[in-house]
What we know:
There is one protein chain. By secondary structure, the chain is α/β, with parallel strands linked by helices. The protein contains 14 helices and 24 strands. The N and C termini lie close together (6 Å). The protein binds uridine-diphosphate-2(N-acetylglucosaminyl) butyric acid. The site of uridine-diphosphate-2(N-acetylglucosaminyl) butyric acid has 22 residues, from helix 1, helix 5, helix 6 and helix 12.
Amino acid sequence: MSVLRINGERELRGSMRVHGAKNSVLPIIAASILASGETVLHNCPNLSDVDAAVKILGHLGCVARREGESVIINSAKMSRCDIPHDLMREMRSSVIFLGAILARTGEAKLSMPGGCELGPRPVDIHLSALRELGAEISEEGGNIICRASKLRGCRLNLNFPSVGATENTMLAAALAEGSTIITNAAREPEIWDLQRYLNSLGVDVRGAGTSTIFVEGTRVKSDASHRVISDRIVASTFMAAAAVTRSDIELTDVIPAHFATVTKTLREMGCRIETGSDNLRIRSNGRLKAVRPIMTEPYPGFPTDVQPQLMATATSAEGTTVFVENIFDNRYRHVEELRRLGADIETAGRVAMVTGVKKLHGAPVKATDLRGGAALIVAALFAEGTTEISELSHIDRGYDNIEQALRSLGADIVRAD
Ligand code: EPU
């Protein structure tokens, strides 16, 4: 079993390019099956979740191969419409294939995704939107079966701006007859990136980034090429690391507007941050200060995917920072691990209170989930002594060789068996 071994208290210095966004790439890989030709996806990070999505493509009869930072997908010979349980289990977000498979073949059969380390993960909003587009849906023996001889565009309102449900609806609507208007849609940058990919396939989609999205169903072009946007959560993770280690780093190939709430919070904690059009410099010196409550919300609010990393940063700040997790029911599993490093954190339901300490101390800990694992890395970089983080498969889902990236900035971190 591999571990990340980190000797903390090193300053980070230098410049690092941020890789492509996991949460953009995954729905775009699903969307690629709407086309019956070749999609070339550039800036595709090397992540186990991307491998899992590529495995699903293979199961469906599509051909996909990686060439450096690109993934080339040919979906001409797609021959199946099901995703079996073992592939669904590998990546819970495989549910984003549902709308695209249904639109392409008229039928989709997916094993129920079930809960995950973040709590129950219902798909009721996805299913109700697909029903409104004309799908008949049944649940049999742990599978969801969707059928639609014809999908028809309509006006539909999501009862919560779910990211995955917005994506599924856009993908199903892309091949539906007529226009679809989605209200209360998620506004995340990854939705905008999906819109850009669909536009490159010739689908008239507008409005992504606002809560109303218009999709004009159409026959799509067979080939497309797309460069995935950079990962705002990875950028935020490195900013959290720089903040806690009192460092000075530059991040390149970023879109600072996509993580403005994180930048604002870190500025309030005492960091100096200068943003350019596609780069950013963060400088931190002196002790960080606790800030007003950090409440996670759908975009453009504070992202739930950065709550654990900022909590790790807040463990070192002077005073008490309150966190309120509003998106997932069970996103404090990293708290117990941060406590092992000496963090002072109390939780009550959705609220966590973090009182900063002068030092954390290295210890063996385990990643409980993807961003919780990233939080442990951030905390370990600050801690005195050696921290060993196990259960790295969680971290590898969303960070492309994070140890090498941190080493290039001067961190003392290795992956060891
Ligand atoms: N929800 C429902 N019913 C539904 C769908 C969602 O109740 O039908 C609830 C969920 O249980 C959750 C909340 O709504 O409590 C938000 O879920 P959403 O559908 O917006 O999230 P998602 O599409 O499953 C994506 C990201 C997550 C990120 C969330 C929120 C991908 C592949 N995943 O998940 O990313 O946390 O949006 O921003 O895009 C991560 O990268 O670490 C990660 C978990």
